[in-house]
User: What shape does this take?
Amino acid sequence: MDAGKLLAGNRIIPVVVIDDVDTAVPLAECLLEAGLKTIEVTLRTPAAVEAIDRIAREVPGMIVGAGSIRNSEQVDEVLRAGAMFGVAPGATGRLLTAVDRAGLPFVPGAATASEMMRNLQRGYRLQKFFPAEQSGGIDYLKAVGSPLPEVRFVPTGGIDADLARDYLALPNVFAVGGSWVAPRKLVESRDFDAIGKLAAAAAV
Ligand code: 3PG
Assistant: This one.
């Protein structure tokens, strides 16, 4: 399935770093309860793959994906764990070939017009704009909207609740991703009350 179809209507994608696998299920439940139905677990900790596996098995209704995918081994690994979609900070030909072969709904990253065009040539109309704030932010997305009208973006990187609203008002923004919804420190300290409040405020 196409990532755009899978993620349609979910305009905020929490990007999470999970250090302790036991926080995965309560975190996903907390986000779901607040109205956020997607979670991107970044492959940046040893616990990430097991966290994806637990969420996929134990939190029905949550669309769980893997983030920070960089190579084909990780594609196979997260698919086995039950990841429903994948996200990458960029894209390489080899990675996109692995993703296509595996049939994983995928959002490749891009930060320049050439990268966006290369992803588009491979059939990816939905792309992560990363790192969004550092790469020119809202003005940049407005500027590429004219020459690349087919591309829809998930800007991620440096975005907070206020900026998310501004990004979401752009016609070429499909959804916004970010860690502000469930910051690593709050996940680590299992402060699900605070995360629930941030998530509820983000849910649109
Ligand atoms: C990502 O992996 O998409 C980013 O690290 C998230 O960026 P943020 O932490 O600035 O929201």
Summary: The pocket of 3-phosphoglyceric acid is lined by residues 15, 42, 67-68, 130, 156-159, 177-180 (CB under 6 Å). The chain has a mean pLDDT of 97. Strands lie at 12-16, 38-42, 63-67, 85-87, 106-107, 109-110, 126-129, 152-155, 176-178.
